[in-house]
Amino acid sequence: MRCFAALLAALMLAAAPAAALAHAYLKSSDPAAGASVPASTSRLLLTFTEEVQPQFCAVTVADAMGMQAQTAKPAPVPGHADELTVPLHFEMGGKYTVKWDALSTDGHKTHGSFSFTVSG
Ligand SMILES: [Cu+2]
User: Could you tell me if residue 55 is inside a domain?
Assistant: First the structure.
């Protein structure tokens, strides 16, 4: 019986993080993490697990030298409140790192980063 109670408590603890998962984490991107794309790639699309507030989100796309490829702030995608798009312009190929800060509609901040490669 004590064993069952402990198991029940463990199950309840395991279920608790589901509420914390209601933040906007990155679900997918285009270019995707680890992808290799042509230098003509002109935009980054970020898809989050929750709706985000574009005016409170920031995205940078920079190479190892710190040269930034984004040409404007992240913009909303009409009809897709869980997505952001960022216009890009690549002067040269190399490895680029995307750093994102997002504010979901529930007021929670999240951030993360990933990299992709631009062929020269
Ligand atoms: Cu949240």
Answer: yes
pLDDT (tens digit per residue) in 43-57: 999 999 999 999 999
CB atoms within 10 A of CB 89: 15
CATH of the domain at 57: 2.60.40.1220
Of the candidates 36, 34, 26, the one whose C-alpha atom is nearest the C-alpha of residue 86 is 26
* Cα 108 to ligand 1 centroid, rounded to whole Å: 5
Ligand 1 centroid to Cα of residue 67, in Å, is: 32
Has residue 99 been placed in a domain? Answer: yes
CA of 43 to the centre of ligand 1 (A): 27
Instruction: Output the pTM of the full model.
Output: 0.82
The structural domain count of the chain equals 1
